Fold these 2 entries.
Entry 1:
Amino acid sequence: MDTLLAALPIIVVLVLMIGLKWSAIWAGATAAAVALLIALFSFDFGTATDFGAGEGVTGVLASAAWTALTVMLIIGPALGVHHLQQRTGATAAIEAGLARITPDPRVAALLIAWFFTLLIEGAAGFGTPVALAAPFLVAAGFKPLTAVVAAMAGHASAVPFAAVGTPTLAQLAIVDVDPLDLSSAIAPYMLVVGAVLAFTVAKIVGTLVPTAGPPWKWMAVAYVAFFGPYLLLALFVGPELPSLLGSIVGAGLFVAVVRLVLARRARAKALTAPEQAAEEEVLHAADEAEATEAHHMGMLAATAPYAVLVVLVMLTRLVPPIKEASQAWEVRWSLFDHFGDGIQPLYHPGPLLLVAFLAGALWQRATRQEVAGAFVVATRQVLPVFVALLAMVTVAYTMSESGMTNQLAVAAAGTGAVWPLLSPFVGALGTFMTGSATSSNILFTDFQNSTAIEAGLEPVPLLGSQSAGAAVGNIICPHNVIAAAATVGLAGREGEVLKRALPPAAICLVLVGGMALLFA
């Protein structure tokens, strides 16, 4: 009975958002009320703890508000960057630049939906890539719903080693495991997860040119280009760099292959039909001249906000003196000697995004009207998002603080030898409820380790399964769905995003569970 009650808030969220198509605000508020009532009356929240019921509710709401605000620090500047790019013509200039790499818009879209999202996730994490890539994909011609799902699926392969390895480093701080052993255990799961997500991205990208269909061959090239260096780094270097360097090296390899293939096709055409090839070359040159005339901004200036963000993130993550300096200033709060949190303003992606926004405005010589317009529109968009996030995070903190989340995990662990099958679902549950793969790993790593030892199983494969499951949870967690939907004007339609994202996430979790059963 306790397990069913503990699961009820999650059931409410899924039924209201997917079944009844409620907005995240109303579904979250209803689920939050249900969670608080269950916590108070069935889980003795505030009576079996070191604080009272009133203090517990106050603390949960304060923690939820703080978390929602820290997410807003990312969404707000990310939206600002998008609207600024639109106003200055930078987005059009980038599209023209991508067209010069390849005439196939689907291949250009792969650079955004796959490599761009993987790069930003590997560098910054915290949901930053979805907030940046979804509006970019809309500008490239995708429908808002498909753009959000593509961005969410595209970035998830990088999550275990996101933000320079943060989720995996969180696990290593809890259990005594060799870093290489853990990153080596995670990588095989992510190869399989990545294949499912690559299939999903390719299928979505195919909607851009329905007559041409999904770019399966190019997606296969993109998959290998990313996961080749990703796997080598995870096996032989450690958890910090597979996602970051994998995306950078992979993007370079992908572009090189694209250029090589296009050059061979051009030579083949020239040999078989020289007059037609010459005519196409003239037309192509005319198109390029027209694009240059329409978009005076160069690619360097057009991509300035993204380039500045990547440089800032890499400096604050990879250069020890700068990393220490950026982490030296921390703002913290506490309540009732139990609740509390903190933020490192110079290390958090939000302020770094704000710097990237301002740098982009200066580099692109944006007018005051363009900067002010982008700021005002972005601010208006994030206000309802804050309310939705506050409601959903309240559900998560209530379940966590009252023991409801742990009750669900313990019930799953009672399956004994079948436990490896369910272990990734616990990782996904943690991310679904907390909005963070890192938080999921902090919440359940020790639990996974202890369960493995008690069941006579190998702990490291289950720790890898936990991390892979937490990464998959990023695709369906309400926090990310709300944030992503807000960036493309889908506020109130979050259930549609969740409905589209659930099938590939479920397939990934089943495959990871099957692998864990073999490895453990």
Entry 2:
Amino acid sequence: MFSLLMNKSPLSRIAEVTGLSFQTIYDKIDFIYRRVMQLQSERDRELEQLSRSRWMVCTDRQDLTINWPSRTRRATIQLAQVATVERSSGFILALHSQFDAQTDAAAYEALMQAAGDLDEPRRAFRTHGRVWTQDDYRSVLAPQDVRRRAAEQLIRDAVAAAEARLNASGEGSEDDADIEVGTDENIGPHEEDMFYECPTIAGEAAIDALIDDFYRSPDEEFPFDPDRTIDADTIFADEPPPRPWRTPSFPQQSDASAEAAPDTGSAAADPEEAADAMDADRQLPARGSMVHIDILQYAHFLYVRRLLGPSIEKITFCVDNDAGLIAACVAASADLFSSRAAECAVVTFRKEATIDEKRAEVAEGKALLDAHCAAMPLFPRLMVADLVFGNDLRRGIAATGAVQEDYLGENDVPYPFVSITEAGKKIRLVAGGLTMDWPRIAKTYRRASLHPVDRVFMLCRRRISGFERGFVSPRRGRRIWNQYAYYDPTQIEKLGQIFRFYYNFMLRGEDKRTPAMRLGLARGQVYMRDVFGDR
């Protein structure tokens, strides 16, 4: 059963293969979960004793869908799952789900009622505000219903006003419509030319003016010319090779234009990334409680901080561009950030890029790095990448006249030498060691990545049938139903923890080692007999 669960076998297929009833399967999942949690807790205590002072960890979250338990209310249950993975070994340090099976939502709401929390609209000032209650759910949907009804009424009023104007002016009759509708023969040659050519010419002239204005005197507008290319004369010249970016990344702008420009790169600009986004197409679980996403994120980072122990000399957090994750990361390790022992790198990349676009960008970065390595044959390849990127970044920031710490904390800087998994990678250092030397900054930009945690989520979906993403049916609008998804939210937490142990201690990679072996937490692979055998 353990092997079938970790190899994407649905529960119905497990019942068919093993001949077990569904109740027996659920009982055995509970037994495997308890056994795995016992072994994992022992390894976590050993992790706290691991003599390691420097860490780089990657944190991201994914959303999992639970099928609606009743046909009378066809709204899915969406639960978030937050994971933190050690960058070099791929070891899953923590994996937490947005569900608490031990807390009853109705009893919790009664506790809030007794404490007067339901009268306090600001959740941060409540005595109890950890999980979602039906009162929270109704309070979120009520404004949405008001806005929807207001929008529908606005449309009805606009249609009624338009009909009233047509009736008052006598326009819009069938006779007028017959007169106004003509054929191509009624349009003369001059009118036809004016109809098709004039707007096009004006549009092209406006576009040319914008391009001329944007690229006017590039040496003055930008510290580097984006049209410069690498050739033999450039490689062997005394001057350093040109910057490897294809587009200008360090525009000089006045304070007024900077204040007027909208903040499109902010994590809060995307409403879909807002914490606890709830609408009428989603519902709360019937059993247990759904934890608020901000509580989950803060608790997750506090757990990671405790797990790594007090002997941290330097730690780099790589997080997704999610405002909640960034705030929780900085708050949970505020003492490390204040002492410059921690830094937070916000990593973004082009998830929507096609495979051909990714390969083209990787090939371009490789060609640029090869050219720089030819100019510096005595240096290792990674050192060349750090030197080139660090020097270009330093000169670019100096040309803008900005303070180093402010610029790195406010701008998404593209990294040119990308891998195919993170094409278009950009990094923003929002807190921490922003005043360190340039080789360290360049190394941080090179190593910062979300690929380890993204790979964990990918394997979760590929190896556990209930974690697979469902499809959107056109007939159901945005509602998603997956035939292999679970109906019980507790299975998300149980299967997630089982997978964490399986991935860390039992799943070997191409190097024939498990993540725990790479981290130095285990000397060999854990087998099934070690999990279920007598100890």
